Amino acid sequence: MSKKAYRDGFTLIELTLAMLFIGLLSISIVLIISNTVSAFQRGMKLSRVNAVGTDIVDDMRASIQSSSARGLLNSCYSNVFASGVPLGPEQRDKCVKDNAKNYVAVSKVAKVKVNGVEQEVPILGAFCTGSYTYIWNSGYFEAENVTFPERTNKDWAKIRYMDAGDIKEYPAAGARPFRLLRIQDEARIFCLAAVDNTGNSYDLPNNGISNVFDISTISYGQLRDDLVDLLPPDSGNDLAVYDISVARPAVSENGDNAFYSVSFILGTVTGGVNIVANGNSCAAPNDLMPGNYNYCAINKFNFAVQVNGG
Q1: Beta carbons of 181 and 228 less than 8 angstroms apart
Q2: What is the rounded CA–CA span in Å between residue 247 and residue 263?
Q3: pLDDT tens digits, residue range 230-253?
Q4: Nearest-CA neighbor of 139 among 284, 285, 48, 274?
């Protein structure tokens, strides 16, 4: 009588349990790798924001320190509006009492919709240090999921200047908006060059400035060759300024010392950046595609500088 040969093996239940265990293990590994990659991506973005922001702080700090403390109040007597009209006696007195705050920084605000939620934010402006001027367009002009009339109408900051007798604009028609320019401007003329051509108001509201910094009608209308784009959009750079704010400068009684306090927000132009509703941070992951959130980073930089004499 012959014996049948039996081979050991897995039962169907054992096989099912083994496959379930392997499946759970694989999912856990994928999730761990995905979270690690996401954390790495966000870490790299934040590191880049911090590195570029530090470079901008150093640039602005050096620009302020190379300016003249006395030149700040002197601007109240020597400068003119874009219309060519100088400050009147009352405007000069107000300018001096305000420590020439409107010669230091101007900005324009607009109502924008971020992911469908409306809020009022700065969209462009200028920061005049007394040696160089920084003109900026907000990252909202290029950020995703953001709409506002100035963006639709391409009313971002432009510079109108005189070149060999011809009036030109930068950027040229059809070009992308610049994000942060540095221009030599010892007289701080760019801060008042954005004023509507009325010449009758010193204390400017945020919405009272034009998007065109027109120096073609002023005697300094020749744009210098040392214009520097600090955040060139055409070189793969994905960072932009979202606001630059400068407190009213503190000036000593004899005008020999001036103290500046400056803050700016730097972030990516990817994803639903919302610097108002979310406390200077990116939108929550459920408000936009998670993949974009990993490439979104934003930070606020604050610094103070003292200027002596000059």
Answers
A1: yes
A2: 9
A3: 998 766 678 999 999 999 999 888
A4: 274
